[in-house]
Design brief:
The chain is α+β, with helices and mostly antiparallel strands and 399 residues long. It is built from 10 helices and 12 strands. A 4-stranded mixed β-sheet has the order 3-6-7-10, with helices on one face. Strands 4-5-9-8 form a 4-stranded antiparallel β-sheet, with no helix packed on it. A hairpin with a 2-residue loop joins strand 11 and strand 12. Helix 6 runs parallel beside helix 8 and helix 8 packs antiparallel against helix 10. It is globular, with a radius of gyration of 24 Å.
Length: 399
């Protein structure tokens, strides 16, 4: 995709690729090391990303960033996917920083600067047990009280919550569940009174948390943006996050395909390399076609980030990436033979990461349905008449 990047973007991606090749080698096996989850300081990689300016790619200069650059984010996420970078770039930067940049008052601007400098990370607490992929289905309630709010609710699948210094909690300040109106975002400290968490690892080794908020008090300065009006911000940030996840999936699928091609060149069966078999070549070509379809739709989505058709483009890309990642992963495992089912290869980690991406912020079926809905909404209400259409002909029938 280098031909679509400007000179600054190309230099940034080239520098990042060299850094990851040198400092972030692929794991020697697909085994996920499971240990207790503890709050930790930002990693050395996170500090390096801040030095590169990656943490400022989703925020304009007026808010302290470099530029709101979806194509630059896309290129960065492709590199992250190819190198299995397991850092909270999407929740902290693509979603969190852009949400904080929408608020010019309260604690948001100061917290945003810490995020851009790499000294703070964020988690987005939006999903709930009943939410599924309907992001409007929020039952967590924030009740106004003495110049602030008291939050009660239950959040699930909160990525990076155990490591984040601040959570952006979505709560309903008026209306009922599934209403677009009445949603608000609050900055909540993980150390606040009334919070209980259950931390766990996902199958790809990333961490998530389940959070219970019982009478958690927040001040008026912890509100992000306008009260009751958070839905459009959330919808936009979720679409940006999905576009970034699609780019990461493309990078991961590229690595899977490359590894499979190399294996086909090295593995012998019946005294010859399996890559010489026509059936294997056909399978590799099918994998390549799926990858390029995903790459094209994902890049198109990122390039349309400021256009009216962005939401539909994102759903088309996510549905394609979900389908392609499943088929490419299955083909890669099959072509590797028995070793593809073991933890001896890093292939397993790519497959697990792709599986997690496919079920984050909407799976294939959800985005196919959403694409149909968005496409129908843009069609004219009445189809134009076709005067040249064939007219029914009355025929006599023989009894």
């Amino acid at each position: 995709m280098s031909e679509y990047l400007n000179e600054d973007q190309r230099q940034l991606v080239d520098a990042l690729a060299r850094y990851l090749e040198r400092e972030h080698p692929l794991p020697e096996s697909g085994i996920v090391e499971v240990d207790a989850i503890h709050p930790v300081a930002a990693s050395a990689h996170w500090a390096a990303f801040a030095h590169f300016g990656l943490l400022a790619l989703s925020v304009n200069e007026e808010h302290g960033g470099i530029a709101d650059d979806p194509v630059g984010v896309h290129a960065v996420m492709e590199q992250f996917g190819r190198h299995l970078v397991n850092e909270p770039f999407v929740p902290s930067i693509v979603q969190g920083a852009s949400l904080l940049a929408s608020s010019s008052s309260g604690e948001a601007p100061a917290l945003l600067q810490h995020v851009l400098e790499g000294t703070a990370q964020l988690a987005i607490a939006q999903s709930e047990p009943q939410t599924d992929y309907n992001a409007r289905n929020i039952a967590t309630r924030a009740t106004s009280k003495a110049g602030g709010w008291v939050i009660d609710g239950h959040k699930v699948f909160v990525s990076n919550a155990a490591q984040a210094q601040a959570w952006l909690v979505v709560a309903r300040t008026r209306g009922s569940a599934t209403d677009e109106d009445g949603l608000s975002i609050f900055i909540v400290s993980p150390q606040s009174t009334g919070i209980r968490t259950r931390d766990y690892f996902n199958i790809d080794g990333s961490s998530s948390s389940e959070i219970w908020l019982d009478g958690v008090s927040v001040s008026g300065t912890q509100l992000v943006g306008a009260e009751h009006q958070a839905w459009q911000l959330l919808e936009r940030s979720s679409a940006r996050a999905n576009a970034a996840l699609c780019a990461e999936a493309v990078g991961a699928m590229s690595a899977v395909l490359d590894a499979t091609v190399e294996y086909a060149k090295e593995r012998k069966q019946f005294g010859v390399f399996i890559g010489s078999f026509q059936a294997i070549q056909h399978r590799l070509v099918d994998m390549y076609v799926l990858l390029e379809k995903s790459r094209s739709l994902s890049l198109r989505a990122s390039m349309l980030a400021e256009s009216e058709g962005f939401a539909a483009a994102v759903s088309a890309a996510k549905a394609m990436c979900c389908q392609a990642s499943r088929q490419i992963s299955q083909s890669a495992i099959q072509l590797h033979g028995g070793i593809g089912m073991t933890d001896e290869l890093a292939l397993g980690k790519f497959v697990k990461r792709l599986l997690v991406i496919s079920h984050t912020l909407g799976d294939e079926h959800f985005h196919l349905q959403r694409l149909v809905q968005l496409t129908r909404a843009r069609l004219p209400s009445t189809a134009p008449s076709n005067r040249n259409a064939a007219q029914p002909v009355e025929c006599e029938t023989t009894p």
